[in-house]
Design a protein that fits this description.
The chain is of the alpha+beta class. It has 4 helices and 4 strands. A 4-stranded mixed β-sheet has the order 1-2-3-4. Strand 2, helix 3 and strand 3 form a beta-alpha-beta unit. The radius of gyration is 15 Å and the shape is globular.
Amino acid sequence: MGKSQRTKGAAGEREICDLILRDLGIEVHRNLQQTRDGGADIKLKPFSIEVKRRAAIGNIYDWVDQAERGCEFPERPIVVCRADRKKWLAIMTIDELFRLIREEVAAAGGK
């Protein structure tokens, strides 16, 4: 990976940290040892967040595999990614999505 790719990736990680603080009021930090030690880019218990900032979205299954490897039990992986000039996206397993939907529906007094 070249220097410009590392710089873009680090900028994406800082951007996600800023968004988490702005939208959730939770201060998180980048894992500066992830390249050497492995693990996720950002830990936000119970989630392990892998950040991908690329010119174009690549093989998301590889990214999900990487996010899963960065988890420590009972963390759950989420990949956030953004292509140039596009919105941030969150990628998670369908089981995790359904768990979140169930919680939202229950909180809203739905089924």
